[in-house]
Amino acid sequence: MNNISTNNDSSQTDSIEAKESDYLYIQSSQIKNAGLGLFTAIDIYKNEIISIFKGEIISNQEAERRALQNNDKYFINLLDGSIMDSMHTDCFAKYANDAEGLSQSDFKNNAEITLDENDHVCIKASRPIKIGEEIFCSYGKRYWKKHS
């Protein structure tokens, strides 16, 4: 389950004024064996909101059932205690990999999972990201402990 950073200063957060499909794309990750990754077709500035997570809000009971089936790789713990599952939802954000997770990678995370000014779970740039770069964000230690 991904962790949400709540140290978000919304006065410094900017949104990109375009549809996500106009500036994001998915292709094979640069991290070996990571599957697909999220990439940008534009330069992104530090603190810009890159992508909003979308998904099904599920009960704790349903989350436990899916976890037993190993179908919990796209869970996000929400601040109200509920869980969002992006597995079967079209959503660019779910393709951002963690460059500093278990695998050895020469890449560093360049974004973070946080909340936007409307309390939507999103990915925000933690540094400038150049056109063509893959977007990486931390999933948190709990995620890697469970999925190692």
From TrEMBL:
Domain SET residues, every copy: 14-140
Top-level taxon: Bacteria
Q: Which Pfam families match?
A: SET
The record ties this protein, via PROSITE patterns, to: SET
Which InterPro entries is this protein grouped with?
Answer: SET_dom (IPR001214), SET_dom_sf (IPR046341)
Q: What is this protein called?
A: SET domain-containing protein
Q: What is the species listed in this Swiss-Prot or TrEMBL entry?
A: Winogradskyella epiphytica
State the taxonomy lineage. Bacteria, Pseudomonadati, Bacteroidota, Flavobacteriia, Flavobacteriales
